[in-house]
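Onboarding guide, step 5: your first structure request.
Type a short instruction followed by the sequence, for example:

Predict the 3D structure of this protein.
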Amino acid sequence: MGLNETPSSERVHIGFFGRRNAGKSSLVNAVTGQDVVIVSDVKGTTTDPVYKAMELLPLGPVLIIDTPGIDDEGTLGELRVRKAKQVLNKTDVAVLVVDAATGKTEADEELIRLFQEKKVDFILAYNKCDLLAHTPAKTPDHEIYVSAKNNTNIENLKEKIAVRALTEEPKLRIVGDLIEPSDFVVLVVPIDKAAPKGRLILPQQQTIRDILEADAAAVVVKEYELKETLEHLGKKPKLVITDSQVFAKVSADTPQDVSLTSFSILFARYKGFLLQAVRGVKILDNLQDRDRVLVAEGCTHHRQCDDIGTVKLPRWIKNYTGKTIDFAFTSGVEFPDDLSPYRLIVHCGGCMVNEREMLYRQKCAEDQAAAFTNYGTVIAHIQGILKRGIGIFPHILAEIED
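The system replies with structure tokens like these:
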């Protein structure tokens, strides 16, 4: 991702679905105006989901996803179909591409049922309309006849996608709704070795941007600079936000009359699952020997020797519980369908995962009776400062005080 690109998690996710050879890839290329995907008359050319981040007018930053044919066959085909269905978990608007000459099949009807089950708004695009003698004069609002080959109705399709994407409820702010113009917000940012050289990690970048958009001031310091900074700031900050790994030190150095939270807690709220995270972390006090805990990351990165997800968190949890815990790890787009073996799922902040995908993962855990929380909530709980860390959210704080 370039320095000035919108993160994938902040883009509208538009998924193209359908049977093999319905012309999904050709339609993706027509909509984007680029040769994003290889096209061929051979069925099953697209074997894995293809992602393309781009600007799509009149919508803005989007992530286009071309999926394998839903009617693929054989063992490998089943895997491709599974990956296509997984894309639905992060899709904001779905485009079901149907061969206009063939019409809808049972495979297409199955996809429509999946869209409805997962509450994904969709458009039914009858492709290859150039092969028809005539097309209907009037169609339902969610249907359109198009031709990727002749570029017929492509602009109208883009407008339909935009209408559905823009009617979604406005997203929460990361921190902007908690502060007022001219407020000071102090961010405690240790230099993360896992971050690319010369850059802050994404949650820190996004939080700074949100503070500036609220017309407030962001003061960024390292953990050992905080105490002196607060003494010389000349004005009490509205909020201190810290990296979870230095939560305890920052809490000790921050006066009790100054609100304190962490990037991870803010992102749990931003992604819509802070209440579930606070409820889920309580299971730490009841873990038993040989209980299984899944540590899940939404992205892949180079592992450091003291990696937080695979090294630090397991060590802290073992020390806190005093139990022999069995840990498992996932990263990136892979997330297990079967969560029943786990008593607890500890997820990262989810900065690289969109809200729909995060809520899907949390719901999967809930349906299979596995507690769900995130890194920062676990760290705050273990260090005995979770109540302070969520104090800015009184309705969430009530969960601990009950």
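Each response can be followed by summary notes, for example: Residues 37-46 have pLDDT under 50 and may be disordered.
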